[in-house]
Amino acid sequence: MAKKDKKERKPQPGSFARHERPPEAATGQAAMLAGAIFVGFSALMSLLLVLEHLGGLSLPGCGQGGPCEQATNSVWGRIQIGSFQWPVSYLGLAYFVAMLLTWLVCRGRLPAALRHLVRLGALISLGFSAIIFIKWMFCPYCVAAHLGNFAFWIVMELSGPRVLRAGPALATLGLAFAIVTGGIGLIDRQHRAVARQKGEQELAQATREIIERSRMPAEQSPTTRPGVTQAPATQPAVATPVVGQETTDQDADELLASRPAPPDRPIDPAATQLVRRAPEPAPAATGPAIGQRPFTGRYRWGPERAPIRIVMFTDYQCADCQMIERQVEQLMAERTDMSVSIKYFPFNRECNPLVGKDLHPNACWAARAAEAAGMLWGTEGFWKMHRWLMERKGSFETADELHAGIRSLGYDPANFVQTMSSPETLRRIQEDCQEADALGLHFTPMIFINGVELKGWYAEDAVKRAVAELAATNPPPRSPADDHPPLALEKYISDWRDQPVRQLPPDTHAWWLGPEQARNVIVLWGDYQEPYTAEADKIIRSFLAGRGDIRYCFRHCPFNSDCNPNIQERRHPNACRASAAAEAAGQLGGNAAYWKMHAWLMENQAQFSNEAVAAVAVLAGLDPDAVLARMDSESVREAIAEDVRAGKQLPVLRFGAPPGLHAIPSVFINGKYVPRVRLGGQSVLKEILDAAIGPEP
Fold first, then answer.
1. Which tens digit of pLDDT belongs to each residue from 2-22?
2. Do domains 23-190 and 293-485 have the same CATH topology?
């Protein structure tokens, strides 16, 4: 037994009990964890942006035409060395992953050299953040990555330096950065190779069509085919996107909502006396109808009669348009057998009511500036202003900047702003937009050579190569009156024909309408509560009625996040329940019961309720209570989920878009995707089916 008078040992200053952790050690552990969380968060945000760029993910608020895409395609979003481009998101992912690993290896105490690197990274994030807000390219994932980087910098400053040698830490950072960069590079290379292959195929086919058309007698026009009726060209209807993203394939069917206009307006109304007004419809053309008039712009560069005639629908703030412009400039400097003319399709509602959102804030004023130059100074003035605008990517901030540019072209800017703001420049641009819509334009640039659309223009040097192949055939010189590009409906049918046959993901819960041995197969992804889906479904079921050569399958894509994780909202509250009702009827009553419930759901979207489903179940010979109970079963949920997953797994359907479905209804005819099912506010699916399948043999 210990003596009572024995003095207890007291810890000496600077010493701790056996299992007690020094305060600075606990603080170091907390700092290490906090720093890892923040830099890891930045790495995650960068990874999402990389996957979005490579087409492996559809991020809400991003996508083609969204703020993330605008930031990526800006001069600040890419590092360019010669012709090589490297998105900043790639660099950010490699840096953050490498820094995360180095931070963990150093246990949150970086050597001085790396501390300076973190400070530099914070300054770079500060600069990018300022650009994001000044230019209003509000990419939420970019902002989140920079905020995480700021927080990491603060933790690093509070954690204190590491006294050990910097060599191992620098080696870790360099090795990790190299491995991540190399991995991204390999994936990016493969991604580009797939895009190049598709572009090469489209370019080869388009070039053959251009050569064939150039050999035809001038009086033969390819604008119509037997049995094809052209729908009127009016404002396109808006279909329902299935992911919560903004788009930029310049596709009116996918343009759903507009983001707020940026705060830095491109022209100061007080300084220029410009009146910003809502776009007014252009007056109806008094001359020949679209498709019958000579196909050319108002200002032609080159001879009126030429063997090679190029017409481009452009947007001065479209990056791809600027790339094509460089090719055309080189060709015109080398050749004397070409003519080039310009038409407009600005993605800005100030002059173009056919688009759904303002993707390019100064595109309208740039187009009006080009027209004003033509009105004041003729063809030479137009082309000088056109080149000036292309070089500046369609941007000018003030009237003084615009006036300085006009003086540099050798002209007096007096009355220029007044001419540019006149109703006549607006009328001309809107007339071009209406013609583009009648021709089925959905993105810029849209390029025609001798009246034939040049698909695959995004392949390397596509315009130059197509022109060279055409010139080698010695086409005869003709005038714009000999060029008659197909109108929109014929283009839609042609777009379906040009699609590759795709192997659709399997459907182990499929319900088929039509005989198993049918040689034609139609598959529709849609939503039982979405009006255009019901319209397309009615057309398809009517088309195959009484025929024995078509099978039809409906696959679920409810616009409701309750059962569709690919979207971020509950646009149609009853969409999941409606899909469940159809599946439950099929599981309990077989194919006939499924299609009876399917037809009622499509034809009575507004009347959906549990009571109505129960009544339809009775008419189908089913126990209504059993149907309602089955709607909540795991087997029904899995049947819907399988179709949702399949829609996400589809390959790229449109140029510039990531994989998967991006609009409903989405129709496949014999494995070929139908890019457009509506024109002029009306469905043209029946006409496409007539052309694709034809009468029953």
1. 444 444 455 454 444 444 545
2. no
